[in-house]
Amino acid sequence: MTLLVTGCAGFIGSAYCRYVLKHHPEDAIIGLDALTYSGNLSTIADLQESSRFSFVQARIEDEAAVSDVVKSGSVSAIVNFAAETHNDRSILEDADFLTTNVIGVSKLLKVVRGCGVQKMVQVSTDEVYGAAPHGKFTEDSPLLPNTPYSASKAAGDLQCRAHFKTFGTPVIITRGGNSYGPFQYPEKLISFFAVRLLQDKKVPLYGDGSQVREWIHVMDHAAGIDCALRSGTPGEIYNIGTENERKNSEITRVLLDLLSKPESLIKQIEDPRKGAHDVRYSMDSSKLRSLGWKPQVDFDRGLRETIAWYDEHESWWKPICDRPEYQQFVARFYGPGLGEDL
Ligand code: TYD
């Protein structure tokens, strides 16, 4: 079949394309991406070498453009990764989050219905459930998002539910944990800290670093999404988690260790997320596991390989870190003084 992968030039979208090209030799991919700040052609240079991959630059909100691609490419399924994803950016300004994560999703759902696409997967996040101080979220847990970012993702999920209920649009939602791996834009905990430590710059640990995240290697996440697409049921939601829960402070120390950097490079800062900083995420993923998926990548190995990848791929991340937009975000969010030395 031909898949339309939206957000293909981002972190998880590009990993998903790699996964499909490797595991489904009969499939072709049309990759679509708006190439906003976090989508990079350098991320998909390897994909572009495949005769089974083609690229289109467009926004998912551009219903006419997406519709044309779907019709001319005889697309049977859409997997939507296109999203604004960084909590900290949503604290500064949420307009792009609402445009892409809510309006963009509703436009894609209209394309699915209008063009008779057989299935859509909406790639969502555990953050829509809000914090889990105890226990685990199931797919039936209430949506209690705490940040403008997670609220926009929850609103996108609700659009999917409403289109399924109202029109029978065949959409599946996946909710993944915190992903790590190669090609992650250097603004998230692991990717940001890795590139800063590689440059001997301090890393800003929010508060006491006691918050817990459920970490998943990006290829395990990609495999989970693919399992939901091929074996899941329209209208259903699937959590994609690993039970690999780690505190931010623990992750930070492992990164220092892997890169042989001193503890003095940790700078604990006042928590910029304030009351919206979710203390823990944790999901029950038995529903997806019952379809045959399970995570394959051991966290210690995955993290070691990921850090080695950043070490070897300065040519990928350094041009991003040198962009004025990137430096302006870091200076604006972390305040004056974060630039060269926290
Ligand atoms: P992040 O990678 O932004 O993912 P999310 O907010 O979606 O979970 O953050 C993961 C955790 O790391 C979160 O508890 C905030 C913390 N964090 C820091 O302590 N310092 C940082 O510079 C960043 C980006 C995150």
How do the helices and strands line up, and which of them pair or pack?
Blueprint: E1 2-6, H1 11-23, E2 28-33, E3 53-57, H2 63-72, E4 77-80, H3 87-92, H4 95-115, E5 119-125, H5 148-167, E6 171-176, E7 178-180, H6 189-198, E8 203-206, E9 212-217, H7 218-231, E10 237-240, E11 245-247, H8 248-258, E12 266-269, H9 286-289, H10 299-312, H11 314-321, H12 324-334
Parallel strand pairs: 1-2, 1-4, 2-3, 4-5, 5-6, 6-10, 7-9, 8-12
Antiparallel strand pairs: 9-11
Helix pairs in contact: 1-7, 2-4, 4-5, 6-8
The structure holds thymidine-5'-diphosphate.
What order do the strands of the largest sheet run in, or round the barrel if closed? 3-2-1-4-5-6-10
The number of E-state strands comes to: 12
Structural class: alpha/beta
Low-confidence stretches: none
Let me know the largest β-sheet: 7 strands, parallel
Radius of gyration: 19 Å
Morphology call = globular
Distance between the termini: 50 Å
H-E string: EHEEHEHHEHEEHEEHEEHEHHHH
How many helical elements? 12
Strand content: 15-25%
Give the class-level CATH name of the domain at 2-180 and 217-240. Alpha Beta
Find the CATH superfamily of the domain at 2-180 and 217-240.
Answer: NAD(P)-binding Rossmann-like Domain
CATH architecture of the domain at 2-180 and 217-240: 3-Layer(aba) Sandwich
Helix content: 40-55%
Task: Give a written overview of the molecule.
- The chain is 42% helix and 17% strand.
- By secondary structure, the chain is α/β, with parallel strands linked by helices.
- It has a domain of 203 residues: Rossmann fold (3-Layer(aba) Sandwich).
- It has a seven-stranded parallel beta sheet with strand order 3-2-1-4-5-6-10, with helices on both faces. It has a three-stranded mixed beta sheet with strand order 7-9-11. A two-stranded parallel sheet has the order 8-12.
- Helix 2 runs parallel beside helix 4.
- The protein is globular and about 55 Å long.
- The relative contact order is 0.13.
- The model has no long low-confidence stretch (mean pLDDT 96).
- The site of thymidine-5'-diphosphate has 12 residues, from helix 6 and strand 8.
